[in-house]
Amino acid sequence: MAGQTLYDKLWHNHVVVQRDDGSAVIYIDRHLLHEVTSPQAFEGLRLAGRPLWRRDANLAVPDHNVPTEAVERSGGVAAIADPVSRLQVQTLDDNCRDYDIVEFEINDRRQGIVHVVGPEQGATLPGMTVVCGDSHTSTHGALGALAHGIGTSEVEHVLATQCLIQQKMKNMLVRIDGALHRGVTAKDVVLAVIGEIGTAGGSGYAIEFGGDVVRGMSMEGRMTMCNMSIEAGARMGMVAVDDTTLDYVKGRTYAPRGAMWEQAEAAWRELHSDDDAQFDRVVVLRGEDIKPQVTWGTSPEMVLPVDGHLPDPAMIDNAMQRAAVERALQYMGLQAGMSITDIRPDRVFIGSCTNSRIEDLRAAAAVVKGRRVASSVKQALVVPGSGEVKKQAEAEGLDQIFIEAGMEWREPGCSMCLAMNADKLGAGEHCASTSNRNFEGRQGFGGRTHLVSPAMAAAAAVAGHFVDVRNWQEQ
Amino acid sequence: MKSFTLHSGIVAPMDRANVDTDLIIPKQFLKSIKRSGFGPNLFDELRYLDEGQPGQDCSTRPLNPDFALNKPRYRGASILLARANFGCGSSREHAPWALEDFGFRCVIAPSFADIFYNNCFKNGILPIVLDAAIVDTLFQQMYASEGYELSVDLEHQRVTSPSGEIYSFEVDEFRRHCLLNGLDDIGLTLQDAEAIRSYEQGLRKRSPWLFDAIR
Ligand code: SF4
Q1: Which of B181, B141, B179 lies closest to B160, judged by CA?
Q2: pLDDT mean over B93-112
Q3: What does DSSP say about strands A58-60 and A15-18: parallel, antiparallel, or unpaired?
Q4: A326 to chain B: closest CA residue
Q5: Which of A410, A420, A421 is nearest to A381 (CA)?
Q6: A133 touches chain B (CB under 8 A)
Q7: What proportion of chain A, given as a percentage, has pLDDT over 90?
Q8: Degrees, nearest 5: CA angle A308-A294-A237
Q9: What number of C-beta contacts closer than 8 Å exist between A and B?
Q10: Interchain CB contact of A81 with B (< 8 Å)
Q11: What is the per-residue pLDDT across B82-99, written as a single tens digit (0 to 9) for each?
Q12: CA A384, CA A360: separation in Å to the nearest integer?
């Protein structure tokens, strides 16, 4: 028998019932909840008169709607200015109280973006099945977990049964060999992967990220990569467990300790693809070939190296592709052939579940230290991913570096990643953003998003246009 | 859940690839804690010329005359013809809720994003994957004749065009069964409650750290 992939192992460990029709009942170890996709699930549970299957498998945190301005935030839920947002956050609090689910409430120091909080607290661990009503649940795969987003009906299904009905995915290995140039980060790698395979490239697959570049990455970097698996079309991305994983997990609040740790570690050490495992598709990139990346269009696959030039629709033969490029250029207000470095952001956003961990903030702070945000930039927001990240950053003095550079230091939350709270782009404004989606209107009606790494966003804030941060770091 | 067996209806186009769920239903409408009422905001940013707000009366908003669903010829459409990778992006189930509330029962495309595809079945919407060349043909036929209708037969897994061409499609057995019968899959899973409990007991022995940590 051929060896198993990491995904195969995680899958087989969680099959409760294998049905003849190819579907399987899969057990869910950890269910994360937030305010946007859970209200209708709790309502469904109540209407059907069903109890919660297993209370201690759930953990909730409000993140999408919470205000990030210190003044509004300090008043808690009652002080959320937007009544619709307030009701949604309040509803999560009420549901968690009714069902006795642990929740990190709005001003709890452990509160933050659900995908930052889970690993940080050790609530998501290697070997687990992790789900959440949010597509970026793929983030948790960095720990060697089987983690993916689900819809609200499935949130209800997990609350009621602790299981999901699933079909097994195909296996894809994305291997990044060699080493990265200085100034090139996990964000650039994953954007390059998406540029290579396209936003539908991973559809139907579970992606495993491997190769020397990934092995050499920190957990933060691996989370950034797994986070954006969904932008590559795959519901889940994952990385094999190694010493980096175990060092990260050890000592976290909900991680096992003592003898239980030994037992867990032994099990987790098995969580890698066997040498003779078969993948349905293998994609290989060379780390040395990857430059800092900037998206120019309205889909994450519309991405170029920072020294690139925008495509010219006239040169594209395929009619669908030509129309897509034309529409994207028009929406973005950009001209065919122009240089990426001539794009001038009006706002800068450093945050989101892709890039709001301590390492991301350190990278951004290193670039802006002793410099000032360009006068052409209206606003540069730095939004830490959680209360814990915020505290750590403040202990290191990063907040002061940002503030002295003319940036705003905010309270944790999703913020301008999807603009459900007050942080949003105006129509026509360009944003250098460390988030994960550059869809039309994503960061505000008519807003124009350029996805970049934290260092690249920080450099663009200072220069007033995109620059190759590699040249800067040598200065 | 509504069952789906046979359905015939007017076909409307969403003629672009990679339609994401932000485009299907923008985030400001996700603040609702209800499951219904999303139809007027389906494709909000394409459909109206102004920026939509939750709770607003959409009947007085300026319509974008160029957007297909605003054209009289597609009025009453219940089948959406779309391009590759439809429904990519966020996992929001508000996207199929909005399609369903608007009146769509079926979406035909060369490919769908995985989470959206799955969410459709939970809401009585049938997503059908047909070959890109066939979808192209359907687009041409639809543009050529006003009032263009298709019939969809889930039982026999086929789509029939007005001129009688038959296109068969694949759908996995479990999802087909649930949709044909309008079954609630939570109820189905709970029939396996014993198996779930015994799995849990084994898990507690194998991986005790997974239990009682969060309290
Ligand atoms: S930070 Fe953005 S992508 Fe991440 S969970 Fe929040 S809204 Fe979603």
Answers
A1: B141
A2: 97
A3: unpaired
A4: B16
A5: A410
A6: yes
A7: 96
A8: 125
A9: 201
A10: no
A11: 999 999 999 999 999 999
A12: 9
Give me the helices (H) in chain B, please.
Answer: 21-24, 44-47, 94-102, 114-121, 132-144, 173-181, 185-190, 193-206
> Helices marked H in A48-198 — which ranges?
70-74, 83-99, 114-121, 152-161, 186-197
Rg (alpha carbons) of chain A, rounded to whole number:
22
Q: Which DSSP letter does residue A425 get?
A: P
Per residue in B121-143, pLDDT (tens digit) is 999 999 999 999 999 999 999 99
**Pairing state between β A15-18 and A293-295:** unpaired
In Å, how far are A167, A174, A232 from A192, measured between CA atoms? 29, 11, 10
Q: Which residues contact A75 (CB under 8 A, 6 or more apart)?
A: none
Which ranges of A231-279 would DSSP assign to H, the alpha helix? 243-249, 258-268
Between helices A39-47 and A152-161, what is the axis angle to 10°?
Answer: 50
For chain B, the C-alpha Rg in angstroms (whole number) is 20
What is the per-residue DSSP string for A42-66?
Answer: HHHHHHTTPPPS-GGGEEE---SS-
Q: What is the DSSP letter of B86?
A: B
Question: For ligand 1, is residue A357 a contact (CB within 6 Å)?
Answer: no
pLDDT tens figures, A290-303: 999 999 999 999 99
Read off the pTM.
0.95
